[in-house]
Automatic annotation (TrEMBL):
Transmembrane segments: none annotated. This is Hypoxanthine phosphoribosyltransferase. It holds the Pfam family Pribosyltran. Its cofactor is Mg(2+). Keywords: Cytoplasm, Glycosyltransferase, Magnesium, Metal-binding, Nucleotide-binding, Purine salvage, Transferase. GO terms for cellular component: cytosol. CDD domains: PRTases_typeI. It comes from Senna tora. Its EC number is 2.4.2.8. Pathway: Purine metabolism; IMP biosynthesis via salvage pathway; IMP from hypoxanthine: step 1/1. GO terms for biological process: GMP salvage; guanine salvage; hypoxanthine metabolic process; IMP salvage; purine ribonucleoside salvage. It is an enzyme of class 2 (transferase). It catalyses: IMP + diphosphate = hypoxanthine + 5-phospho-alpha-D-ribose 1-diphosphate. Residues 16-168 form the Phosphoribosyltransferase domain.
Length: 187
């Protein structure tokens, strides 16, 4: 069966995503134009991989890129507590500005753990660029480091969404847009 037939509702199309990613990239490029050394972009695996790839290609600065992995979610739609860092950086971020790139901020636990980790590695500032933000579900405030800024693509209603990197039970990450699954597939 075709992938599209699993989706009940599309929240953001490929075109809308692409336009918003371009806006974010030019905003960040402008904001960090005079940063020295240039910022390090850190993607949170796996969910941020498509957003990260699209965003960094549009950043008009000589940046370094790397990934971390934070393990928190099981196979369902609920967080299972404070995440741990299960894949660490290769790039040294000490005294560098870091832009942390996430797929979605929900309770804020994942981001808080990763930010604390980057701070402990001596980053001079930590900014966050999340594709989606679900403020209605926030449990912990996101504490940026230094003069870090918060960027977001879109505010997300309180649905469990899939696509553009985001999964349900590791499926649907390859969907090129953001959607909500038909109820029979959330099983
Ligand atoms: P938090 O730690 O902020 O509760 O959750 C962050 C992580 O949970 C995200 O990076 C993402 O991997 C996952 N997550 C939260 N909300 C959603 C959602 O609506 N859809 C999907 N697919 N993953 C989500
Ligand atoms: Mg994530
Ligand atoms: Mg997930």
């Amino acid at each position: 069966m075709a992938l599209n037939s699993h989706i009940e509702q599309v929240l953001w199309t490929e075109d809308q995503i692409s336009r918003r990613v371009s806006e974010l990239a030019s905003q960040i490029s402008d904001d960090f134009r005079s940063a020295s050394p240039p910022p390090v972009f850190v993607g949170v695996a796996t969910g941020a991989f498509l957003f990260f790839a699209d965003l960094v290609r549009k950043i008009d600065l000589p940046i370094a890129v790397d990934f971390v992995r934070a393990q928190s979610y099981g196979s369902g739609t609920q967080s299972n507590g404070a995440p741990t860092i299960s894949l660490d950086l290769k790039v040294d971020v000490k005294d560098h500005h870091v832009i942390l790139v996430e797929d979605i901020v929900d309770t804020g636990h994942t981001l808080s753990s990763v930010i604390a980790h980057l701070k402990s590695k001596g980053a001079s500032s930590v900014s966050v660029c999340t594709f989606l933000d679900k403020p209605a579900r926030r449990k912990v405030n996101v504490q940026l480091v230094g003069k870090g800024k918060f960027y977001r693509g879109f505010e997300c209603p309180d649905y469990f969404v899939v696509g553009y990197g985001m999964d349900f039970a590791e499926l649907y990450r390859n969907l090129p847009y953001i959607g909500v699954l038909k109820p029979e597939y959330y099983k």
